[in-house]
């Protein structure tokens, strides 16, 4: 049987699944691959009146301008540190949370904790940042009220550069820990229960079973998610940073995405903003490739 005939056979066999997959394909074509056409304005002096194709080509002019800008190294440092610190602190929490939930013997308590841990993931970024601003308010915020009751002076957290990364990372953990733990709980649920039964017969304790059975069994899932997360170190969403930062915290809070927002939408410097965004995407791709290579060599697992 020829390769083409074999492909037609598989298509006919899986036609119902392929039909269900069509909306996903359309979505990616329209909202992921279609907009890539606009990247060429990073190499042009784009004019709204001239259009994309009629605008003049300038080559790497905007990239060179960005690399020579004093903002480049500040943005690079802020984006890298915020991404790495978020990765180091926020990535392990869902794993530990899933392991602790799995070890809980009280099903009602387990389900209640799971339910409350999922809720923050369904809140919009605007709601989350509004809650943060209210809690950390220097006048009537809950945190400062507690500090004053304990005899300490109030702190204007959102205006203090040294507190910005701590606040951002803490809220990332709180918002995504429960939701991301679902993946690890699903991986734990797929472990063969006879492994635990055999370990009990051999006299293994609960911690030993977690260490030698649960964690090694979910390690492929951990590695895959680690690779995906590593690729997003430089792809920090601008929404939360934009809503939390202010001129007093620019020195630690300003990242590539917020810089693109300011230059592109506020200052209407579209070509320059596109060049910065393109550079950010390239660095993110490089990080993804490096993480995948390291993961394959260390654990034998990767995205490809």
Automatic annotation (TrEMBL):
<feature type="domain" description="ABC transmembrane type-1">
    <location>
        <begin position="76"/>
        <end position="291"/>
    </location>
</feature>
<keyword id="KW-1003">Cell membrane</keyword>
<keyword id="KW-0812">Transmembrane</keyword>
<protein>
    <submittedName>
        <fullName>ABC transporter permease subunit</fullName>
    </submittedName>
</protein>
<feature type="transmembrane region" description="Helical">
    <location>
        <begin position="112"/>
        <end position="133"/>
    </location>
</feature>
<feature type="transmembrane region" description="Helical">
    <location>
        <begin position="20"/>
        <end position="43"/>
    </location>
</feature>
<keyword id="KW-0813">Transport</keyword>
<dbReference type="InterPro" id="IPR035906">
    <property type="entry name" value="MetI-like_sf"/>
</dbReference>
<feature type="transmembrane region" description="Helical">
    <location>
        <begin position="212"/>
        <end position="238"/>
    </location>
</feature>
<keyword id="KW-1133">Transmembrane helix</keyword>
<keyword id="KW-0472">Membrane</keyword>
<feature type="transmembrane region" description="Helical">
    <location>
        <begin position="80"/>
        <end position="100"/>
    </location>
</feature>
<dbReference type="Pfam" id="PF00528">
    <property type="entry name" value="BPD_transp_1"/>
</dbReference>
<feature type="transmembrane region" description="Helical">
    <location>
        <begin position="173"/>
        <end position="191"/>
    </location>
</feature>
<dbReference type="InterPro" id="IPR000515">
    <property type="entry name" value="MetI-like"/>
</dbReference>
<dbReference type="InterPro" id="IPR050809">
    <property type="entry name" value="UgpAE/MalFG_permease"/>
</dbReference>
<feature type="transmembrane region" description="Helical">
    <location>
        <begin position="270"/>
        <end position="290"/>
    </location>
</feature>
<comment type="similarity">
    <text>Belongs to the binding-protein-dependent transport system permease family.</text>
</comment>
């Amino acid at each position: 049987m020829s390769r083409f005939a074999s492909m037609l056979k598989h298509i006919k066999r899986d036609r119902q699944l392929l039909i269900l997959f069509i909306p996903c394909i359309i979505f990616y074509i329209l909202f992921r691959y279609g907009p890539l056409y606009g990247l060429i304005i990073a190499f042009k002096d784009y004019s709204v009146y001239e259009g994309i194709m009629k605008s003049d080509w300038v080559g790497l002019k905007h990239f060179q301008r960005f690399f020579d800008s004093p903002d480049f190294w500040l943005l690079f440092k802020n984006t890298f540190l915020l991404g790495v610190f978020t990765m180091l602190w926020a990535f392990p929490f869902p794993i530990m949370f899933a392991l602790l939930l799995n070890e809980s013997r009280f099903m009602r308590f387990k389900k209640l904790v799971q339910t409350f841990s999922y809720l923050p993931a369904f809140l919009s970024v605007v709601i989350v940042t509004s809650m943060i601003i209210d809690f950390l308010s220097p006048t009537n915020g809950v945190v400062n009220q507690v500090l004053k009751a304990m005899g300490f002076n109030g702190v204007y957290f959102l205006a203090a550069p040294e507190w910005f990364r701590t606040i951002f990372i803490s809220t990332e953990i709180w918002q995504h820990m429960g939701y991301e733990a679902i993946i690890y709980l699903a991986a734990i649920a797929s472990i063969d229960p006879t492994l635990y039964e055999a370990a009990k017969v051999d006299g293994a304790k609960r911690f030993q079973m977690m260490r030698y059975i649960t964690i090694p069994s979910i390690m492929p899932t951990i590695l895959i998610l680690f690779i995906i997360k590593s690729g997003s170190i430089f792809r920090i969403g601008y929404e939360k940073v934009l809503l939390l930062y202010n001129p007093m915290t620019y020195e630690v809070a300003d990242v590539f995405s917020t810089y693109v927002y300011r230059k592109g939408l506020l200052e209407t410097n579209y070509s320059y903003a596109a060049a910065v965004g393109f550079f950010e995407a390239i660095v993110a791709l490089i990080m993804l490739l490096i993480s995948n290579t390291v993961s394959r060599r260390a654990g034998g697992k990767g995205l490809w």
